């Protein structure tokens, strides 16, 4: 299953409230939050070599709304960062997919 369908399923099954990834805007890939309210935008979800800190965005969102369930596009390096954030109690691993 490709990443777009995985993100769509996570949102449709209410496993996440927002999925953090990248979207093309005027030729530039930028961080973007995809939600059930903007499901049609999921077709624009891109995988990027850019190193925008999606984890930092996730920590800000979690701080603002601790009950928010967050999906995040992550590589191995991002997963290591997420593990540190779980250890420091900045993100709840039960709220991140």
Could you characterize what this model shows?
The protein has about 100 residues and is of the alpha+beta class. About 35% of the residues lie in helices and about 20% in strands. The chain is built from three helices and four strands, in the order H-E-E-E-H-E-H. The chain has helices spanning about 5-10, 55-65, 75-85, and strands spanning about 20-25, 30-35, 45, 70. Strands 1, 2, 3 and 4 form a four-stranded mixed beta sheet that branches. About 20% of the residues are buried. The mean pLDDT is about 90.
Pick out its properties:
22% strand, 97 residues, 4-stranded mixed beta sheet, alpha+beta, single chain, 3 helices
Please report which band the strand proportion falls in: under 5%, 5-15%, 15-25%, 25-35%, 35-45% or over 45%: 15-25%
Low-confidence stretches: none
Listing every helix as H and every strand as E from the N terminus to the C terminus, the arrangement reads: HEEEHEH
Task: Please compute the radius of gyration using only Cα atoms.
Answer: 13 Å
Structural class: alpha+beta
The largest pleated sheet is described as: 4 strands, mixed
Helix fraction, binned, reads 25-40%
Q: What overall form do the CA principal axes indicate?
A: globular
